[in-house]
Amino acid sequence: MARRKTVPELLAEALLAKQQAKLAQARAGQAAVSNPAPVRRPRKPHRPDPAAEHARLLAAGEKLLAREDATKAKEAARIEADLAKRRAAREREAQQRQREQERAVRERERFERDALKQRLKEEAEQRCREVAAVLDELESVLRDRPDGLEDWHPLVERALAHGGASGVADVVEDLLRRSPVPAGCREDAAVGYVPEAGQLLVDVALPSQDVVPAVAGYRFVAQRGEVVPQQVKEADLQETYRRLLARLALRALDEAFSVTPTGLVGTVVLNGHVATTDPATGRAVLPCVVSMMVERADFAELILDEPRLDPQRCLRNLGAVISRHPHDLEPVSPIVDFDPARFKIAADTAVVGPLDGRPDLLQMDPFAFERLVRELFTAMGYETWRTQNSRDDGLDAVAVRRDPVGVTVIAVQAKRTKNVVSPEVVRALLGTLQDKQAARGVLVTTSWYGKTSWETAHRNGQRLDLIDGRNLKALLLEHLGVDALISLSKLPPGWQPGDVD
């Protein structure tokens, strides 16, 4: 079986045959044109060596294939290079887009950081303005007092005519409660009126230190990316609070004097309490942090609108008792300890005038006898008022004396009786003094005291005085010019007939 020729061999043979045919044709045409000689006998064509020709053709075919392979390889390389360029271009475009996206993200983040920084700066500035506004409002408590309070005088006078002392107290109390003070600076107010003494009793609920901002301002800290408060020094915070309490007290005094006519109110007694919780017990307490008794004439000399006015020194000059540490709610003893809701003031009439001849103290109406005792203390230099007829804890009057040394508050109890006063009455008065925080107590009677009562009084000589019937009779004659009788059925031990006649 003959060997099958390969493709290069077949291509070589076909190429050889084609070349031989062309060569033969060319030779025939050339011979006919250039050599018109007699026709010779054709020679046998030259036959090349088949093996050599085959080798030559094989080499030519391989060369042709090599050229075609080279062309294909070159084309493939060109295509590959073009693809590589395209891939590189796409990669460059992708990288460019990535860089642009990253740059956009960075730009957005930078914008957001700058915007946040600006917002925090603005927030710090706004909060600083808010703190400054609160402080300015607290500083202006005394400066921004309400105007036109004198227009209330007719209303106060009508309230006195129709409602008596309670009517006056209600009008002033309503004004104090509705006064436009900063929020939290005056939570409540209670007022009592003593017409016979021309006194207004005012109790105001003052704020705790929480009403004063504990920060001086705010600042933006870039490293931390937040707004940080700037704390006020504790000493400065306490001083601001003390000045606020002084301003509030002066403002309450100004409103109380301004809203009432001069002929009705000559003195204002003011106590300022702070509603808080006792940390030791958890119970609600009302420590008194400022107390004063101020005459209208003394208050009228003040210039409250003067920017350089020191409210604390002003209170001290008015004789006020001020807590040294109000921030710690350290209480002070009130100059006059009163509860307007509990000690309502009732209208009083003079009793000395109608007494004709020699009045018999035992025959007097009990309430008339109490009024006579109060008039006696008034003549002795005290400012007096009587307590409400009910729930008075046994007290019939409160007497106050002011002198350069200080203020003395006396709780007075009057006993119109023909029998000896029992020691229990004396001890009960001592307990009432403790409850009312009064400096002294005076028990006045038309009769006498036993040995036990006098011993109790001697043991409490700094706080308790006993006035029996004969001493009362002498005091009435000395200070009121009243020569009274005491119609006892028998003389007490140690008394003389002249002590009752």
Please, could you describe this protein's structure?
InterPro entries: Restrct_endonuc-II-like (IPR011335), Restrct_endonuc_IV_Mrr (IPR007560), tRNA_endonuc-like_dom_sf (IPR011856), Type_IV_Methyl-Rstrct_Enzyme (IPR052906). This protein has 501 residues and is of the alpha+beta class. It has helices spanning 7-34, 50-139, 153-178, 234-259, 296-300, 311-317, 366-379, 423-436, 451-459, 469-479, and strands at residues 189-194, 199-206, 215-221, 226-231, 267-274, 276-277, 284-285, 288-295, 321-322, 383-385, 397-403, 406-415, 440-445, 464-467. The strands form four sheets. The chain has a five-stranded mixed β-sheet. The longest helix is centred in the first third of the chain and has 90 residues, at 50-139. The chain starts with 6 loop residues before the first helix and ends in a 22-residue tail after the last helix.
What is this entry, summarized?
The protein is built from ten helices and 14 strands. With 501 residues, it is an alpha+beta fold. The strands form four sheets. The chain has a five-stranded mixed sheet. It has a five-stranded mixed sheet with strand order 10-11-12-13-14, sandwiched between helices.
Characteristics:
501 residues, alpha+beta, Trna Endonuclease, Chain: A, domain 1, 14 strands, Restrct_endonuc_IV_Mrr, Type_IV_Methyl-Rstrct_Enzyme
How many individual helices?
10
In N-to-C order, the SSE pattern is: HHHEEEEHEEEEHHEHEEEHEHEH
First-last Cα distance = 184 Å
| Percentage of β-strand residues | 15-25%
**How is the main sheet built?**
5 strands, mixed
The geometry reads as: rod-shaped
The structural class is: alpha+beta
Q: Please mark out the parts with pLDDT under 50 across 5 or more consecutive residues, or reply none.
A: 342-356, 388-393
Estimate the helix proportion, in percent.
Answer: 40-55%
Major β-sheet strand ordering: 1-2-5-8-9
From the alpha-carbon coordinates, what is the Rg to the nearest angstrom?
A: 59 Å
DSSP E strands, number: 14
Mean pLDDT: 82
Tally of distinct domains: 3
